[in-house]
Design goal:
Elements lengths: L2 H13 L2 H39 L3 E6 L3 E2 L2 E2 L8 E2 H10 L3 E16 L2 E10 L1 H6 L4 E4 L4 H5 L4 E4 L1 H8 L8 E4 L2 E9 L14 E5 H8 L9 E2 L1 E6 L5 H15 L10 E5 H44 L1 H9 L4 H38 L7 H27 L3 H6 L2
Parallel strand pairs: 6-11, 8-10
Antiparallel strand pairs: 1-13, 1-14, 2-3, 4-12, 5-6, 5-9, 5-13, 7-10, 8-11, 9-10
Helix pairs in contact: 1-11, 2-9, 2-11, 2-12, 3-8, 9-11, 9-12, 11-12
Length: 410
């Protein structure tokens, strides 16, 4: 018996018991759909974290003021001795692993352009911040040395601010008012999207740190040039842990911290945090796929049970085939093809169901999902393997029946 004849015979046998065949395939259908959906959800979570890492920038740390204790009460982060612009300059100058260290200060304000206004974040910093964040300009230019030295009334705006204030119009060289201070838009940032906290990174107006200090903040920072934080980018190939320890040692020296005393600052390795999130997402994807894979194994057990019942029911048919010349390998091929056909049909239906389920999760739950051809191929291939593995024993049992005993079977 050739393959096509065996396939036709297998399809006729399955068609003669449609309900039983469908119930047998149910485990495979659910298993394949579950595998595809779970991998899509897990992959979507991983891609979201990777996008956040890309938006954050590579090898980046954040130095923040620490907390203080008053009357036995800890007042929380950023309540202690403040950081200064000189601290940022010292980190960039004295820590060899550091590529740039940008001083940052932030506040919220209403920004006005003509008859339009928008509430956004005002960020005072230098061009080193954009380098640290791997944040290029979509149009215009960055801050020049003269802008910083002269507290120039210029600004670079994010895509959200540009859209809200100017719509489709070109924002370059347009005038906006920040806390009643007129500034000229000299650049527009590339789109970054949301960060890991769900905040819109493009909703920002960036001004030179000196402009922020002397004009927007009103000079209240004084001669010490207080800032809110320092963004540090470590050179490619350098050890982040070594860089962090060197920054900590330098800052302890600058703050004159006694041995054993608590640091009046904190250092956050943002890249490490997101890498941990990415690893967690990948592990979760594997766990979800493993749990879904159990459904495929259960479906395979169902196929084996039904095929054993089918062998018993068709014992006389098997004996008759052997009596007219069918060989054991023909009987083996016929029953094995039936098992694999059940798995493949169930797998095809499962792929469609998985695609629908993945779409529904993304559409109604609002999760980011990513269904790939590799996940579909993995689920479909695994379903075929399940059919072969669990179908082999019933097929082999059928092929080893003796024709005389099979014909006498009642």
């Amino acid at each position: 018996m050739n393959f096509l004849a065996a396939l036709r015979s297998a399809l006729r046998a399955l068609a003669s018991n449609k309900l039983r065949s469908m119930l047998t395939m149910l485990g495979i259908i659910i298993g394949v759909a579950a595998v595809i959906t779970m991998i899509a959800v897990g992959s979507g979570a991983t891609e979201r974290v990777q996008a956040q890492m890309k938006g954050l920038g590579s090898n980046i740390m954040l130095v923040l003021p620490g907390g203080i204790t008053a009357g036995g009460v800890r007042l929380g982060a950023q309540t202690g001795q403040g950081l200064t612009e000189d601290d940022a300059a010292a980190i960039a100058r004295e820590v060899p692993e550091v590529q740039v260290a940008a001083p940052n200060s932030r506040t919220g304000a209403q920004v006005v352009a003509g008859n339009t206004n928008w509430s956004t974040s005002i960020f005072g910093t230098t061009m080193d911040y954009l380098e640290a964040r791997d944040w290029p300009l979509a149009a215009g230019r960055g801050f020049e040395a003269a802008d910083v030295a002269g507290s120039a009334k210029v600004a670079i705006i994010g895509q959200t601010v540009a859209q809200q204030l100017f719509g489709e119009a070109d924002p370059l060289d347009q005038m906006i008012r920040v806390k009643k201070i007129p500034v000229t838009v000299i650049g527009v940032l590339e789109k970054k999207g949301q960060n890991s906290m769900g905040q819109d990174q493009d909703d920002i107006v960036v001004v030179p740190i000196s402009t922020y200090r002397n004009r927007i903040q009103g000079g209240s920072a004084g001669k010490l040039k207080r800032i809110g934080s320092i963004s540090v980018k470590v050179r490619e190939g350098q050890d982040m842990k070594v860089a962090e320890e060197n920054i900590k040692e330098l800052m302890r020296q600058r703050f004159k911290v006694q041995q054993g005393a608590e640091d009046p600052f904190s250092i956050r390795n943002l890249t490490e945090i997101l890498q941990a999130q990415e690893a967690s997402s990948r592990i979760m994807t594997m766990l979800l796929a493993a749990v879904a894979g159990i459904s495929l194994i259960i479906g395979g057990i169902g196929i084996m049970n039904i095929m054993l019942v089918s062998v018993t029911e068709r014992t006389r048919e098997i004996g008759l085939r052997m009596a007219v010349g069918a060989r054991g390998k023909d009987i083996l091929a016929q029953f094995l093809i039936e098992a694999v056909t059940l798995s493949l049909i169930g797998g095809a239906i499962g792929v469609l169901l998985g695609a629908v389920a993945t779409w529904a999760v993304g559409q109604f739950a609002g999760w980011q999902v990513s269904m790939t051809l590799s996940s579909i191929g993995l689920a479909a291939g695994f379903s075929a393997i399940v059919g072969i593995f669990f179908g082999f024993y019933p097929a082999r049992r059928a092929s080893q029946l003796l024709p005389i005993q099979a014909l006498r079977y009642e």
